[in-house]
Amino acid sequence: MALPLYDSQPARRVPWVTYLLIAVNVVVFLITPMSRFATWYGEGAVRECRATQFTFEYGAVPKELTTGDQQPLPSDVARDCGPATFHKAPWTSAFTSMFLHSGALHLLGNLVFLFVVGMGVEDRLGRWRYLLSYLFFGLVAVYGFAWTSPGSAVPLIGASGAIAGVMGAYVILNPRGRVVSWVPPVIVIRLPVWVVLGYWFILQWLSLGSEEKSNVAYTAHIYGFAAGVVFALLARRAGPSRRLAALSRG
Fold it and tell me: What is the pTM of this model?
């Protein structure tokens, strides 16, 4: 698989929102029990329990989103770590789940893609439209996943749904762009964006049957990517004057 390294087309302005989103995701990860940096959560089994409970508290549980009611912790979690001591409004977890990651590799993989495609989309949409669309893509991904698996009690966490939306928007807003990519083991090559991101999307589709085994929410990725494509197509349909005005602000 080709791993994108950077967009070969320079942005016209400093992508402050992309940098901010990257920084927020990093800081949030460092202060959660999923990070080794946060030593105040304890060690060993104690940390694992805190991480599990934290994930259920702030992660998006599909059954909670579809019913609107907080669900009890699974019996095995309650047995090993104790009952839930928190109260949550399920809809808020649709937002908080976007900024949680299970580990450093999970975080790094998401932020590499955000760094590569986020700058170009921010450059074309403007800062505020880009930020709002990022959150919108994330919500579509989370609720789309919940709608597809309404009875699931497994928390969904990660920025990948929102970032998938940015990727979909990038393909439409910059279809002729090229992305400098690393093809293992040693090849670095400039590839058309539709090749890199199109291949990524196909992989998500082909991997749908392995979601339960891999613990990767491929369905959320697909919903997010589709939301980005539709959003960008609607944005491109704006009249020339409105489009120029939108690109001049932010």
Answer: 0.87
